[in-house]
Amino acid sequence: MTSPRRAECSLCYTGRSLPEALLYLPLAYLSYATAYIIWIVLSILVLLLAVSLLWPYMTEFKAVSAPLPLLTLLAFVLMPLMLRK
To answer: Which residues constitute the domain of residue 77?
Structure first.
């Protein structure tokens, strides 16, 4: 049985730093479904930005095999899906 104090404390935000909590704060005012869609879209945009910034530096990968750069970047998308419990 949990005490009221422990139940209250379990709702506290203790996992991350304040700047990270402020990043999530605007999403807290939205419905769960809307916030989830916005988060997924932002994650995809950040991934595309990373790909566009790294693409010029992948010439060695392209010399070995043409699809290797895309497969390497695809690993960043697939790995979280495979590690999901």
So the answer is: 25-83
Q: What is the mean pLDDT of each run of 10 residues along the chain (85 residues)?
A: 54 68 87 89 85 81 76 75 66
Task: Give the H/E segment covering residue 75.
Answer: helix 68-83
Q: What is the DSSP code (8-state) at residue 58?
A: -
Does pTM top 0.85 for this prediction? no
Using DSSP's 3-state secondary structure scheme, residue 13 falls into coil
How many whole angstroms separate alpha carbon 43 and alpha carbon 32? 16
Burial 40-75 (b: 16+ CB within 10 A, else e): eeeeeeeeeeeeeeeeeeeeebeeeeeeebeeebee
Task: Give residue 63's identity as a one-letter amino acid code.
Answer: A
Q: CB–CB of 27/35 below 8 Å?
A: yes
The domain tally of the chain equals 1
